[in-house]
Amino acid sequence: MSDAEGNPLEEAEDGETEMKEEEDPDYSEEEENVPQKSEDDLLPWRETQEEKKAEEEGEGNLEEEEGEGNLKEEEGEGNLKEEEGEGTEEKAEAALAEMVSGSQEEITRASQQITMAMISLEGLASTDSQSLTSENSPIIGRESEHSLQTESLSTLSSPSDYELALTSSEEKLIISLQKKMARLSSGELAQERVSEPVKEEKRREKKVSYVDKGKEEELQPIAHTPAMDKDSLVSTSSKDILFQKDDGAKVYPLTMTWKFGWNSSLPVYYIRDEEQRVLLYANAHTAVIYNAYKNTQHHLRGHPNVISCMCVSEDRRWIATADKGPNCLLMIWDSFTGPDETFNKHVGKFSQSIFHLNLTQVLSATLEGKLVVWDVYRPPLSASTLPYIKPCKLVHLQKEGITVLTTVDSYIVTGDVKGNIKFYDRTLSIMNWFSNFKLSSIRTLSFSKTLATPPTEKSNYPSDCTLKGDIFVIRNFIIGTSDAIVYHLKADETKLEKLLIEPKEAICAISCHPYQPLITIGSSCGMIKVWDYKKKRYLFSRVFEKGLGIQSLTYNPEGDLLGAGFTEGTVYILDAMSLENGIPEPFNYSRTSVTHISFSHNSQYMATADANFTVAVYMVKVRNSQRVWEYLARLRSHRQSIRSLLFGVHLDSNEPRLLSLGRDRLLIEYNLLGSYKNHLEVLDIHQTDQGNYPTCMIWYPPLTKELFLLISNSGYKVKLFNSTTKMCRKTLLGPVFGSPVEQVQVLPVKTAMELERRYLVFINRDKVGLQILPIDGNPHKTCAIVCHPNGVAGMALSYNGHYIFTAGGQDLSVVQWEVNLSALEAAVSLGGEDLIPFYGLVSGGREGKFYRELEDYFYYSQLRSQGIDTMEARKVSEHICLSEVPFVMRAIGFYPSEEKIDDIFNEIKFSEYVDTGEVIDKITLPDFLKVYLNHRPPFGYTMSSIQKNFNILGYTNSEGKKAIRREDFLRLLLTKGEHMTEEELSDCFATLLGLNPEGWKSEPAASSLKGPEVRWEEELPEEITAEIFVTDILGLTISPGFGQDAEVSEGARDV
Fold it and tell me: Which of 351, 520, 782, 978 could form a disulfide with 771 if both were Cys (CB 3.0 to 4.6 A apart)?
C-alpha cells in the first residue's frame, strides 16, 4: 500500500470491458436545476489548497485497480485527464464573463425567484406551514403552507446581496465581480420588480392544494411586497437567528411543537459544530433542524408527501428536500433564515452519486462495491445541445456494497453494508478506514463544517494506512446507521458518542400517562421508549427480544401499570416507571396481533382484542394477600375486525361494563359479573347501521341528562346511542376531510369551568383535528391538519388536554401538537350563528333555488295534511306533521331507508323527552333543514355507489358490464333487505314507468290500478345495468363528472 502521489491509476492491459454510453433518465431534469444555483452559489471556487496545487501541477491518468490499495483494472477507453488549473482568479473571471454574456436573463430570473422565496423561519414558524382545514373551507392546502409573510419577505437590491462567506483570498475578487454583475443587471432587475406581484401570483397558483377533487376548496392567502429598500434576509441573517426567534402568538388550533423519531433510511446532516451541535434529518413530511445542546427543534414544513431524499450545500446553509407522490415538490431552504424555493416538477430517483474532487467528473456507487466514473460534457452556450454525462470507467472499489458516497477535504469517503467507513484519495487509493466500531449498515455520513484541528502533542489522531504512516487528520462527523442510531465521531480521539437512538420499524402504539407529562412510544421492532414531553427529554426504554413487536399500549387509570400488546399475540403488564414485568409470565392466549388494550375505571379488569376478532378479559385476584393478574375468559364475538374496546360504569352499581364494536356493525356488551373461568358471557348485541360500518366508539361527555355512546361510521356520520337501551337517538354530520374518522377521544379537562365547554379530538387517514361539542352538524366547529401523509396509526392525549400526539406508523415518527382552543372558537364565531352555517351547506344558500323548493314542499305538506279537496279554511303554521317528513325528504332528493326513517322519527319524537317528558309529533322548517343535512349522504348519490351494488349482485353480460336479470331483480326486491310486498312493488313500478298517476297512494286524488289491467313487468328490460336502473327506471340524471364519481340526482333539481 502506498500513498497517492506515487501511484496514479493506469490503464489495465487486459480484461477490459468497454462501457456503453448510457442515458440517465433523471439527469436532464437535474441538470436544469443545477446551473441555476451555480449563478448564486459561488462555492465551486472554494477549493482546498491541496486541490489547487494538484490542478496547477496537473495529475496523472486515473487507472482502474482491483482491491483497496492501488486499483489497476480499467474498463473503458482513454485516460482520465484533468484540465490544467488556471488559478482561481482566471477561472472566476471566465465563468463570470460566460454567465453575464449568455445568461443575464437567467440571472435576473434566479435572483427574483430567491427574492420571492425569502421567507424567514419566523414566518414559517408562525404559520408552521400548516395545512389547516375547516369544514367551511375543508382544506387550506399547500398555499397556506407556503404563504409568504409580510414581515419577513425581503427584496434583494442587487446580486451583491448574495455574498457568502468566502476565503479571504477570493473575497475581494468575487465582490468586485458581483458589482460588475449588479451594474449589468440593475436595469433588468428594476423592470422585474415592477412585475413581481404578477409573477408571485402565478407562482402561488402552482402550489396547488392536494385535496379530494371537487369536495374541498382552497383558501388563497395574499402576499404583500415589502418596501424596496429593506435589506435581504440572505445577506443580513446569521446562523444563530434560527433558535433565537420567538414564534409569538399561536393563531392556529393545532401547532406542531415536537417531532419524535427520524427516518433512518435518509441521511442525517451535520449543520453546525462550533459552539452548538446542530443536526438535520427527515421525519415523515417534515425536515427537522435539531440542536442537541439546547434540545430544541425547528421544523421545515411544506411537503405534501413523506420526504424521500434530501441534501445540503457545502457551507451547510442551503438545504434541499424532495418528496415522492402526488404533487411532489423539490424545496430549497435557508438554514439561517428559512426561505424556501419550490419546483413543482418530478425530479427523478436519486442515486448515490457525487462530483469528483476535480469537479469535472461524477462518481456513482453501487451495492456491489463498484464505482462508476462519468465524464461531464458541457457544450458552449452557443450550442443547442444540453450538458450530458458519459461513463468512462468502472472501478471495483471494494467487496462490500457501498451505501454512502461523499467527499470531505481531499478525500472520497464511503460507507458500506458492513458498517465500515473508508477514506480514499483522489486517485482512489485507500488512506484509512474505521471498521472496529461494529456498526450496522451505514446510511449517512455528514462531516462538520469546521475544519479539523491541526495535530499537536496532545492530539490523538490515528495514522493513515500508507507506507509513510502519516497522521490521519479528518473533521468530526456524524454517522447514521440502518438500526436508527446516530453517532458523533470526534476524530482526534476516535471517540464515538450516541446522539439519537430511535425505533427502526413502524410506530403503531403510543399512550400518555394519566397524570404526569410522560408519553410511551412502542415500535414494531420491540422497543418501548418513555419521554418527558414537557422537557423533551428521553427517560428510559426497554427492547424486547426479536420477534416481539409492540402493537398496542395503554396505562391503567392509576398510572402505575402499562399494558402492552404484541404483534404475535403476547400481552405484558409492565411497571409504568421501570418497564419491568409486573406479572411473573406474560399472557399468551392470542394467536394474532393484539390491537386493543383497555383497563376498567377501578383497574380490576383488563380487556384485549386481537386481529382474529377475539375479546379476552383478565382480572385482579387476591392470592396470599397479594394482588395478582389472572386470565378470565376469551370469546370470538365478531366476524370482522374489532374497531373499539371500551370499559364503562353501570350507573346503578358503579361496577365496570365492557363493550366491543366491530366492523361487522355489531355493538356487543359483555356480562362481566356473570362470566367465569373460560366463559365470557354476552349481555346483548345491537346492530349499529345498515350499509356503513362503524370506525370507532367513545363515551359522549355528560353535556345532557341522557348518557350516550358516540359511534362514528364510514359514511362520515356520528351517531349517538342511548347507553342503556342502545336506541339511536341522533345522527349528525361528522368531520369531512377526505376520509372517515378512524379514532376519536374527548379532550381531558382539569377544572370545573372547563367542563362547560368540551371538545373532541379525532384522526382520519392522514389528518388530526378538533371539534367543538355538542355536535350539531355545524361545519365551522371542526378543523383538521395533515399530520402524517402516509397514514396515522394512533393517537394519544396529554392528561391536561394541552397536547395531542399522533403516531405515523411506517413513517417512524410521533408528532406533538399544542392545542389552542381560542383559535377554533374564533373560527366558529366568524361562521355565523343559528342557521347561517347550515345555509351554506345547500346549493345557492338561503336565497337559492333549492331552499325555495324546500319551502314550497314544506307548505304543500301542510295542505296535504289538511286534505287537498277540503272546503274548510286553510291553517298555515310553522310546522308539519311527523308523518310528512319522509315524503318531503324524498321530494328534495334524499331517499332514506325504513330504518333511517325510524331513526329520524325517534330523533324528533324524543328530542325533548328527557327535559320535559313530552313526545314531539311535529317539526319546524329550520329543524327539518338540520335533520336533512345531518342525515343525507355527505357527497350525494354517486354512480360508483350504485355500481358497487350491481358488481356484487350481478353477472357480466355480453358487453362486459355488470347486469341483473329481470326475474332476479324482482326476486331480490321481494325477499332481501327491507323487502317490499307485491302490492308495493306493483304500485311503485307502475308509477315509475308512467302507468299510474304520480303519488303512489300518497296523494288523496290518486287511485292505483290493480290486477291484470297493468302489465308493468313487460316494461322492464330483460337485463338491467346500473345505468339503465338509474336513467330508465328511476328517471334520474347523471350529472357531468369523472366516470363513476358522477352525482345522481333529479334532472330538474340541483341538489
Answer: 782
- H/E stretch holding 770 reads strand 767-772
Which three three-digit cell numbers place residue 814? Answer: 410521533
End-to-end CA distance of the chain: 82
Closest CA to 498 of 451, 584, 440: 440
Q: How far apart are CA 714 and CA 153, in angstroms?
A: 44
pLDDT tens-digit profile of 706-744? 899 999 999 999 999 999 999 999 999 999 999 999 999
Q: 3-state DSSP helix/strand/coil percent for the chain, to nearest 5?
A: 25, 30, 45
**CB-neighbour burial class of residue 636 (10 A; exposed 0-12, middle 13-18, buried 19+):** exposed
**What pLDDT, on the 0 to 100 scale, is given for residue 39?**
38
Query: Pairing mode, if any, of strands 605-610 and 615-623?
Result: antiparallel
- Left (φ > 0), alpha (ψ -120 to 50) or beta: where does 827 sit? alpha
**CA–CA dist 671, 689 (Å, integer):** 23
Side chain identity at 486, as an amino acid letter?
V
Q: For the chain, which residues make up each domain, given as ranges?
A: 251-352, 839-867+875-935, 943-1033
Ramachandran category for residue 1013: left, alpha or beta (phi over 0 → left; psi -120 to 50 → alpha): alpha
Query: How many other C-beta atoms can be found within 10 angstroms of the C-beta atom of residue 578?
Result: 12
Beta strands at 767-772 and 782-786: parallel, antiparallel or unpaired: antiparallel
Give the contacts of 844 (CB within 8 A, at least 6 positions apart).
850, 851, 1054
Residue labelled with grid coordinates 451505501: 403
CATH value of 839-867+875-935 in 3.20.20.450, 1.10.238.10, 1.20.1440.230, 2.40.30.20: 1.10.238.10
Across the beta sheet with 561-566, the strand order is 550-555, 561-566, 571-575
Burial state string for 439-449 with b = 16 or more CB within 10 A and e = fewer than 16: bebbbbbbbbb
- CA 178, CA 158: separation in Å to the nearest integer? 9
Q: Which of 643, 512, 518, 528 is nearest to 580 (CA)?
A: 528
Alpha carbon distance 800, 544 (integer Å):
31
Write out 826-841 in H/E/C secondary structure: HHHHHCCCCCHHHHCC
